[in-house]
Structures are given as C-alpha cells and as structure tokens.
Amino acid sequence: MKTMAAAGLVPAALAEDGKLDIRIVRLKLRHTWTTTMSSSDYRDTLHVHYTRDGITGIGEGAPIARYKESAASGKQALEPFAAGLVTADPWHFDKTLTELFAALKGNYAAKAAVDIAVMDWVGRRLDVPLYRYYGLDPKDAPLTTFSIGIDTPEITKQKVREAAPFPILKIKVGLDSDEATIAAVREVTGKPLRVDANEGWTDKEAAIRKIEWLAKNGVEFIEQPMPAAMLEETRWLRDRSELPIIADEAVLRTADIPKLAEAYDGVNVKLDKCGGLREAYRIIQMARALGLKTMLGCMISSSVAVTAAAHLSPLVDYADLDGNLLISNDPYRGVLVEDGTLVLPTGPGLGLEPA
Ligand code: MG
Predict the structure, then answer these.
(1) Ion ligand 1 — residues with CB under 5 Å?
(2) Binning pLDDT at 50, 70 and 90, where does residue 36 land?
(3) C-alpha dihedral (77, 81, 85, 87), degrees to nearest 10
C-alpha cells in the first residue's frame, strides 16, 4: 500500500490532507475485572483517527491477550501502513482495507481500529449514521446484558444490585465456585441470566451436569463452556444440552463459521476479534445463513468500539455491549442504554460526541 503513494498514483493535494493518528488510550475500570483469563484495574486500547477531506473518522480496537495482542504491538504493527492508508482513494475503502488486512499479520485490534475509523469517516462523509448505511432499523437493536465478573459471593451480590436497570445479566463462571456464584446471584434477583464460562470447563461429563443445573436456575444459554480447540467434545455437549451453546473464543473469522455450525448453536461476534465492522457483518450474515443464533459482544473499551458494534446490533439475536459502562474515563458519548435497550446515536457515522 505504501507503493500506491510512492508510485505517484495519488494527487499530492489529497496526500497532504490525509492523516492517520494512532494512539494508545488507558481506560480505568470501575471494578477490578476478573475472568478465568485475567484480573486487572485498567485496559489499554488502540485509538485511530483517520482524516480526509477535512473530516475525521474515529476507531478503536481492544487487544485481546488470549490472541497474544497488546496495544503497543498493534500500534507498532500499524504504523508502517499509515502513509498508504491516507493516500489511497478514500472511496476505494473496501479494496484498501482488504489489502491492509492481507499485508498486516494478526493484530486484529489494530485492524478493527482502522476499519471502524474508516467506516466512521464514510458515514460522516455521506452524512448518514452507520446503521442507515447498512440498511438497518435502529428499533431492532436487541436488549443488552450487563456482565458480572467472577468475584466473592458478597461482591457478586453487590454488583447484581448495582445492575438493577438491566433486565438480563451475563454471569462469568468457569471456576470451582460456579454454583456458589449463581446461588449468590439468585439470592438477589430472578432475572434471566446468560452464562459465560470462557473455556473454563475441560471435562464434558462435568460440563453437562453444570448445564443441567444452570437450566434449572433460569439460564438462557451458555457461552464457550469448553476450550475452543475441543470442538468434538463441544459437539457431544451440544447433542445433550438443554441450553443453546454459543461460541466466543472459538469464532474469529467468517471462514470459521461452517465448522462451528456443527458444534454450536450460535456465535458471539466481536469487532476486536475479527478486525472491525466489515468482517463482523460478513460473519453475522454467514452465521444467519447457516441457521446459527448471532450475538454481538465487546471487550472492555470506550464508547468508540461499543458504538460501532451497536450500529450492527439490529442484525443480531443477542447483545452484550456493556464494555464502555465498565470504565470511568470514557472520552466519548455514543450508544446509550435505557433499561437494557440499546439506543443508537443518530449523528453521521458512529454518531460520537465528546463525553
Ligand atoms: Mg465470552
């Protein structure tokens, strides 16, 4: 892509206007966040500002440690492509991003940050909100869950009380304390629950017993009960499970979906995992075509990445788009949640405003 500018294919005036700013933003967490994978008080995400024709699109990607990504490595990997991105014809964005994705290995959070920034720019330049660009009705946006991380029963109960405005909760499990966690939640609320084991169960016989117990406790579905690599065991589980089984860590790209359809009932799509809006849209359409349930999830991030996902949410069955609600220093205001309903901003592109 650098060669496009070097070959003189781009008018100099366009090149002068183009700018790609890549920065790392440290987001502070309201509560220490614990899953089976990690525990922390802050998260660093990658923010990209893409400026053309005097209009700036904003994007964000949250690097996922499981896939050996970090904000620093994403920034470093993306920088060599900045000149090519801001000199290519902005209306050839699909071709330009496809070339970038082929040339930049891994680093899906960086890819997501660029993809979202470019699509925000496209929406702003066309003066339409992204949900309209995709032909979606914002009133079809599903309810979002609010996630409760793994903690002691006392703190779990306190978090569930604080989540009172949300009609559905997502509970993280995957440790020996799972039954105590659900029992603590049930002491406080009778709301529907969705449960995420984050690959925490490795024995299929034990997993089916846990699922039977969860089904009796008002749980709607179980997300990634077993490790992503245990596809055969997950198929065995799916054949016996009363609850739908949703893939998360197992689903990365569109090409993964046909084989996952043999072992799961649905897929959790995250822009940070797949590289942004374009690939997320393709995954959702492929999954729907194969009869799978679809879900949009997110990482802990600011309103940039969460709002981007929310613009696609009218397409999906389930949403877990609460990552921006878990931080105390969000630089932007975008999608809002009213009694669990996602309310999409109506401004052009992502529709972000300063916080
Ligand atoms: Mg998950």
Answers:
(1) 196, 223, 248
(2) low
(3) 160
